[in-house]
Amino acid sequence: MAEELNAQSQTQQKESRDNIHSVTATGKSESTTVGLGDGIKLNPWYFKSVPGIMKLVQVLIAIICFGCGSPAITSYSRFFLFVISICFIFTIFLVFIYLMGLQALLPNFPWLFAELIYTAIATALYIIAAIVELVMTSDPKFEFLRFIGYYRPYIAAGVFGLFNVLAYGGGLFFLLKEWRELRQTP
């Protein structure tokens, strides 16, 4: 009896395998940009590239620096926040340009070279501002910061400023690499 059930079970499994049909799905590939008008194309896929990811990291670290470095009680913390503000505005401007594909509207403008120069300047300013923030916070002249509760946040702001130096430096490295590759191609 058990042998008959086993044989029936194997026969049913074979029949069910024979009745299985394959399903094939086909799709149409589409462009990676979405048109919004005359020459403007939304390009969120830019942020999957290394320069796009670097810009998002720079913006995120700048927001953390804003949170840790404010309010600006001392002159050096005002300088630190000024540098962060200027770099943040320009980086958001570049994010918007690449997101909306606006660089295609001015094809003769040297976008890569301009971004390379900006990133080099931002890296240098961030180095100066972060070091000033860290050194001046440790100066005995500003001992009152410990008592009013701004010593640790200012130190954290300086450390995150150094992290943003690394982010801008990494962006500078990749931009320089891309610029050299474009100059070498005929």
UniProtKB/TrEMBL annotation:
Localization recorded for this chain is: Membrane
Q: Where is this region: Disordered?
A: 1-22
Q: Which PROSITE patterns match?
A: MARVEL
Q: Where are the transmembrane segments?
A: 56-73, 79-99, 111-134, 154-176
Provide the primary localization: membrane
Membrane topology according to the record: Multi-pass membrane protein
Domain of life, per lineage: Eukaryota
Q: Which UniProt keywords apply?
A: Membrane, Transmembrane, Transmembrane helix
Pfam families in the cross-refs = MARVEL (PF01284)
Q: Where is the composition biased (Polar residues)?
A: 1-13
Segments forming domain MARVEL: 46-180
Q: What is this protein called?
A: Uncharacterized protein LOC106472941
